[in-house]
Amino acid sequence: MPVPKLTGVVQVDETFICERQKESRELTSTLDKEIERKPRYARNPSKFGVVNSKFATVVTTIDNHSYRTCKVSNLEKLFPELFFDLFDNYFANISFLCSDTDNIYEDYYQLRNIPTV
């Protein structure tokens, strides 16, 4: 079944999901399977916050007809070029693109001449 085009008012946001390998005796890196990953402990906070290679970035869009797209874009932080490559084909006749104040979407707004809310 083909994915419908998103039209009208489209909302977009991203979230981060941490990779887990609980109770595994052979930890592997999510970026390179050949690298052995050392265990992390809850008492040691991440020095990178939630934007690092331990987290997958998931981007979700929804329009006013409740059509949705959701993609795991990458490990680490999403960047504007990747957003364009992943989602431009799903947008058609957007009247407004609603998002948070993250600058990821600013280039897309300007490139496609889309009003923002």
The tally of beta strands, per DSSP, is 4
From the spread of the alpha carbons, the general shape counts as elongated
State the secondary-structure class: mainly beta
Please state the CA-atom Rg, rounded to the nearest Å: 17 Å
Beginning-to-end CA distance, first to last residue: 31 Å
- What would the average pLDDT be, to the nearest integer? 78
Strand order of the largest sheet: 3-2-1-4
Number of domains: 1
Helix count, DSSP H or I runs of 4 or more residues: 2
- How many strands, what sense, and barrel or not for the largest sheet? 4 strands, mixed
The arrangement of helices and strands along the chain is EEEHEH
Uncertain runs with pLDDT below 50, 5 residues or more?
A: none
Provide the β-strand percentage band. 25-35%
Fraction of residues in helix: 10-25%
Short description:
The longest helix has 8 residues, at 80-87. The protein has helices at residues 80-87, 106-112, and strands spanning 6-18, 55-63, 68-75, 91-98.
Describe the structure.
By secondary structure, the protein is mainly beta. It has one domain. The protein contains two helices and four strands, in the order E-E-E-H-E-H. The chain has a four-stranded mixed beta sheet with strand order 3-2-1-4, with helices on one face. Strand 2 and strand 3 form a beta hairpin. The protein is elongated, with a radius of gyration of 17 Å. The mean pLDDT is 78.
